[in-house]
Amino acid sequence: MPNQLIVVVEDEEDIREIVLYNLRREGYEALGFESGSEGLSAIKAKHPDLVILDLMLPGLDGLSVCQQIRLDPALKSMPVIILSAKEEESDIVIGLGMGADDYMTKPFSSRELVARVRSLLRRTENAGVNHDQQKITIDDLLIEVDRHQVSMAGVAIPFTATEFKLLYQLASNPGKALSRDQLLSRVMRDGVIVVDRNIDVHIRRVRKKLGDYAERIQTIRGVGYRFMG
Ligand code: CA
Fold first, then answer.
1. Which residue among 3, 75, 168, 184 is least packed, with the fewest CB closer than 10 Å?
2. CA of 206 to the centre of ligand 1 (A)
3. Residue ranges of the domains in the chain?
4. Distance from Cα 12 to the centre of ligand 1, integer Å
């Protein structure tokens, strides 16, 4: 199998070099670019397996690059991880809304970034095979889509429609950061009428029902939630 190719768009040379170094050490082929337009041209030409994208870039910024990727039919399902400075929290929310799959806040650990890359690539590979996911199993926890049922060690747990859809959206996207708005719109897209639009309230109930599995739903401060599969 050929090496997977990762494009890193980051104008800060130190960060770019350390990210490239760590990716290559893990066996990935990695190419670095310092501007959004150079990065985007390379992405269009080379169709990498994953893109790591800084938000604050000279010229074409990271959000615009992400948007261009999602608008291009040939690129739109390409996994994107965005990098941002801490004060850009609202940009993270916008980035996730534009289809970024995950994000990391600077300063970040390269080891963690590589772990996110690996998990995102694994998820993308599985997504093709398992597109119509009818059952999600995590150890003792079973989520059955057609029956709208959650059970733990064979015992069914009552979930409301909203709670079920929320859990399903999170659990079917393991490792992916989802903003509150994304969660709400996905639940409503499935035809569920959400009376209380405060996602946090629903998540609290879901966690309570999940017992030992509650910790799988991680809170991402100022952004939303992520499910660790
Ligand atoms: Ca930057």
1. 3
2. 37
3. 5-125, 135-227
4. 6
**59 C-alpha vs ligand 1 centroid, how far in Å?**
11
Cα(100) to ligand 1 centroid in Å equals 17
CA dihedral over 132, 136, 137, 138, signed as positive or negative: positive
pTM of the model: 0.68
Q: What is the pLDDT of residues 181-205, one digit of tens each?
A: 889 988 887 777 777 778 999 999 9
Give me ligand 1 centre to Cα 111, in Å.
Answer: 20
Query: How far away, in angstroms, is 175 Cα from ligand 1 center?
Result: 24
Per-residue pLDDT tens for 84-123? 886 677 888 888 888 888 889 998 999 999 999 998 888 7
Q: In angstroms, what is the span from residue 54 Cα to ligand 1's centroid?
A: 6
Matching CATH number, 5-125, of 3.40.50.150, 1.10.565.10, 3.40.50.2300, 3.60.15.10: 3.40.50.2300
CATH of domain 135-227: 1.10.10.10
Q: Do domains 5-125 and 135-227 have the same CATH topology?
A: no
Residue 15 CA to ligand 1 center (angstroms) comes to 9
